Amino acid sequence: MTLFTLSNDQLELSVSSAGGAIEGFYGRNGGASVALLRPGKGSGSAIQSSCFPLVPFANRVNGNRFSFEGKTYRLTPNTEWDTHYLHGDGWLNEWQCLEHTQHELLLEYQHSQGIYRYVARQHFRLRDNELDVTLSVTNQGEDALPFGLGWHPYFPLTKHTTVQAKSGGYWLEEAHWLAGEHQTTLPADIDFNQPSPVPRRWVNNGFSGWDGNATIHWPEHQWSLTMETEPACPCYFIFVSDPAFDQGYDFDFFCLEPMSHAANDHNVQGAGGLKRLMTNDTLTQTMRLTSRPQR
After folding, report:
1. Around Cβ 29, how many Cβ atoms within 10 Å?
2. Are 272 and 262 in contact, with CB atoms under 8 Å apart?
3. Which CATH class is domain 55-293?
């Protein structure tokens, strides 16, 4: 595992070759500094990092099975603790550095086994108070397949943290953390159409009708972070753990995951935005995180 550092007068970023994961992202304003993502542990495990990529698609496929253009495909579980193939392969493997300067980093991951065979790249760039992360995937398999992209960022959760992210509905959670039936009425405590606090309870739901923009505000730090996605992601996922399930968790972080498609979009017609890629076709997605100190 290698750690790469990018920095300028307003931002500092640390990225690991393990999982292509961010291990730290900090905003600066004069003598003040704040963690804009949960500080990673530098353990080489993506689930202990600040943010990791989702490629060749995000979340789970119900039953590890989908049909596409007349063929049926079966996915193999890729962790010891989940019965599903989860979040793709990139977060579990080593990425290679192609370029590294003070303000930019380019990593590549090649996957050459299983149903999905592809090359993924992540380009990190600091510019003033903005971090741009561009993730791309190129199909290197013989079959045309549905691909998607996203990220799994962990944000600090303070007593007064608020989130604003447009949504027109959400998916219920079923057993085994799977996406269930879509609902058009949002429960009050997970309606983020206006700036709202993050609930202190288990949340593991995808949200539809997003415009690809979100704002997180930490009043204690007098700091905000805005997220923009290009092209605009149609879905985001909110995850809040629970100490009863997650030993050591103290409602100190939450996840707001931008996704180019809905969870289980392989099996739900019209649910999101998986893209059909033929051999050598490429899909690209950008996430921009902008630090906004309010002092």
Report:
1. 18
2. yes
3. mainly beta
* 5 phi, psi to nearest 5 deg: -115, 135
Beta bridge partners of 68: 71
Please indicate, yes or no, whether the overall pTM of this predicted structure exceeds 0.90.
Answer: yes
d(CA 112, CA 93): 12
**Which own/partner pairs from 108-115 qualify as long-range (CB within 8 Å, at least 24 positions apart)?**
109/20, 109/55, 110/140, 111/56, 112/140, 114/75, 114/76, 114/89, 115/73, 115/74, 115/75, 115/141, 115/145
Q: How far apart are CA 148 and CA 47, in angstroms?
A: 20
> How many Å apart are CA 147 and CA 266, to the nearest integer?
9
How many angstroms separate the CA atoms of 59 and 52, rounded?
12
> Rounded distance, CA 109 to CA 90, Å?
7
Tokens linked to 165: 């992210």
Task: Please tell me what DSSP assigns to residue 121.
Answer: E
In order along its 295 residues, the chain shows pLDDT tens digits of 999 999 999 999 999 999 999 999 999 988 889 999 999 999 999 999 999 999 999 999 999 999 999 899 999 998 888 899 999 999 999 999 999 999 999 999 999 999 999 999 999 999 999 999 999 999 999 999 999 999 999 999 999 999 999 999 999 998 888 888 899 999 999 999 999 999 999 999 999 999 999 999 999 999 999 999 999 999 999 999 999 888 889 999 999 999 999 999 998 765 458 999 999 999 999 999 999 998 6
Q: Could you tell me the residue ranges of all domains in the chain?
A: 55-293
